[in-house]
Amino acid sequence: MTTSSFHTLRYYLSEHPSIVGFRWSHTQSWGSTWSFLFTSIALYISAAVVLHVLLLILFRHRRPLPLGPLPAAHSLCMALISATIFAGTVLSAAAEIRDSRWLWRRSRTTPFQWLLCFPLGTRPSGRVFFWSYIYYLSRFLHALRSFNAIIRYRKLSFFKLFNHSISIFMSFLWLEFSQSFQVLAILLTTLVYSVVYGYRFWTAIGLPSACFPFVVNCQIVLLSCNLVCHFGVLLLHFIKGGCNGIGAWIFNSVLNGAILFLFLNFYVKRYLRKIKAVDGGCLVAEKMEMVKEKDI
């Protein structure tokens, strides 16, 4: 990439007036009200349940229904959006660190501490909160994957509905309460999403899949990194005298713990014995085919 191309990319991802001047507002930001949040989640769950029931009535057989290029298109779209959010968040965080370094010297705050723990009084405005808002909106597109499994397999997964609903809810809390840790959480999640959805697009167009449970391994890495970072936030909260949005962070941690418990329960009970029983690499991928449908 040439220098001029990089400057152009940096401008549109971190220096554009719409990004620099962003402000989370109930009157100016679409989808920023509590009523919208709860209504959209309720409609999502209701639509999934109604679709599942209708398909069970109309199609009594369990053969998968073809969806054509839609799963591949959704995976490609999510991979590109995740990669864009990741790049924009990296450039925006670097710009915020550059512009605020002089202020942090008074409180002896390092850039890494800022990524984990926002100073008290931080307001949801500026570059990183713009990309946090884009990430929040992308959760609605991510939730559409549930309908893929419902239509193709007539299978309604409580874990998927819970995971997607909580993902929307938590990303809303990040903006509403300027919650600490959200920058790192967005970076970790979008990095993993871009890889996972790129892999799903790869397999959806008929290319060979990995000889190991690729999606599950990525999910384990993401959950492990989130767990380590949560301990870092808690430590800095007591050392630095408080992190902004700590109440929302505690609620976020409880929800993340519930997701981790559900995932481990699913993985251990239903698939661990299958993995141990299989000898040979590529047979594992076939045994884990349903795991690939599991959303992260």
Automatic annotation (TrEMBL):
<feature type="transmembrane region" description="Helical">
    <location>
        <begin position="245"/>
        <end position="268"/>
    </location>
</feature>
<protein>
    <recommendedName>
        <fullName>Elongation of fatty acids protein 3-like</fullName>
    </recommendedName>
</protein>
<dbReference type="Pfam" id="PF01151">
    <property type="entry name" value="ELO"/>
</dbReference>
<keyword id="KW-0276">Fatty acid metabolism</keyword>
<keyword id="KW-0472">Membrane</keyword>
<keyword id="KW-0443">Lipid metabolism</keyword>
<dbReference type="InterPro" id="IPR002076">
    <property type="entry name" value="ELO_fam"/>
</dbReference>
<feature type="transmembrane region" description="Helical">
    <location>
        <begin position="181"/>
        <end position="202"/>
    </location>
</feature>
<keyword id="KW-0275">Fatty acid biosynthesis</keyword>
<feature type="transmembrane region" description="Helical">
    <location>
        <begin position="157"/>
        <end position="175"/>
    </location>
</feature>
<feature type="transmembrane region" description="Helical">
    <location>
        <begin position="214"/>
        <end position="239"/>
    </location>
</feature>
<feature type="transmembrane region" description="Helical">
    <location>
        <begin position="71"/>
        <end position="92"/>
    </location>
</feature>
<feature type="transmembrane region" description="Helical">
    <location>
        <begin position="34"/>
        <end position="59"/>
    </location>
</feature>
<keyword id="KW-0812">Transmembrane</keyword>
<keyword id="KW-0444">Lipid biosynthesis</keyword>
<keyword id="KW-1133">Transmembrane helix</keyword>
<keyword id="KW-0808">Transferase</keyword>
